[in-house]
Amino acid sequence: MREEVIDYLQSQNLGSFTIASEVPWTETGTVLYLKNLKKIYVDVDAFTTDPLITTFTGLNITNETTTVRVYFANDAKQLPSNYDEVVSVIKAAKDINTTAGYARREVDVSTSYDNDRLITEIELRYIKLT
Fold first, then answer.
1. What confidence tier does 3 reach under pLDDT thresholds 50, 70, 90?
2. Residue 121 CB coordination number (10 Å)
3. N or C end: fewer C-beta atoms under 10 angstroms in the chain?
4. 69-112: per-residue pLDDT in tens?
5. Higher model confidence: residue 90 or residue 59?
6. Is the distance from CB of 123 to CB of 98 less than 8 angstroms?
7. Cβ(122)–Cβ(70) under 8 Å?
8. Domains (ranges, CATH) in the chain?
């Protein structure tokens, strides 16, 4: 899903924000989105499988969740004028038209501060029954 999210974001008008092709940190653990303000980073897919229904006959139905996290930072003292629009566009990535058969799509947004930088993390979850 990472590539689909990147493709979707690259097709959107995000003003002065840009899309990175690399992951949000280096091999040494340097957090790139703190160094490169207004650059949007998409992390690699994370997968979880949770049992939903288990029967005596051996039939197991599970929720398989693919999670994609999107990160960016900007100056907290002077918020970009299109900040809310950028967040809305990224949140809309949960509705990317895929053929993977996702039954549910969820999104959460969280923010935090690092000195004078506002860090935004958007978690996109794509859930299907398997």
1. very high
2. 17
3. C
4. 999 999 999 999 999 999 999 999 999 876 678 888 999 999 99
5. 90
6. no
7. yes
8. 2-129 (3.30.2000)
